[in-house]
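Bench notes, afternoon.
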Amino acid sequence: MLPERPAPPPGVSQVGGSVGPMDFDKYHGIGNDFVMLADPDDALRLAPRTVTRLCDRRLGIGGDGVIRVAPGRAGGDLLMDYINSDGSVGEMCGNGIRCLALFALERDLATGRSLRVETGAGIKVVEIQEDGRVRVDMGEPEFRPQAIPVVWDGDDALHAKIELGEGLVEAACLSMGNPHAVLFVDDPATAPVTTLGPELEHHPAFPSRVNVEFVAVHGRARIGMRVWERGSGETLACGTGACAAAVAARLLRDTDPTVTVQLPGGELEITWAGPGDGPRPVVMTGPATKSFAGTFDLEAYR
């Protein structure tokens, strides 16, 4: 545990002092990839420009984001500081937190197979299972427009209509610690992910921008999706997006409590009992994989 000095918010501040070569690991969760940095002294501050350069797939290490892993500050075992490839701060990353669990165990940042991880969306409980997959309690979905946030009248935004130049788009909007807009389509493979995705991400209806999921229901226990991620563009997978898609499908398409979500990079298992009395968390289970490790000179990326 560190300092008594005030800790800056995750992701926002500069690299301080002189920093020499740094070790990193590259991990991915079904194709959603991250530069993983261990920061046991909670001393590393990454500027947006530094992150953007690190994530560059031609001139840097390459990744959908950077994850800094530090000691917990508020009751957690560890802190996950997640920054998107464009340098913006992400409150939560479902694929990233699974990678964090394996990274922390290998780097001796944690000793057990169960962790409480502090994120911008609160503390998440992460468990490494016997089969090597990682199970995450993602918390409860949030439907109130002001908490997502989305500009929409009413008690929830599951049937929000977003006005675009070419007409209205209906989206099931909710938060899984970060904002999501789920669009049901006939076939994600032909959906306008790279055009409609960025248009919705930056739409005035979403004051904090938004992740956009293009979802098809293939049966009661299986859905498919592609995703346009806020701050990263189209990615091969999105853990919070898969959770949002499963919740929206459960409520609006009568799918089973447990569904397999097929993404371009692989599959995730999502369980949500649906609305009801008492806590109703969404649980995500899926793999995480180490791709490679290396060393870089942080000064070269400042």
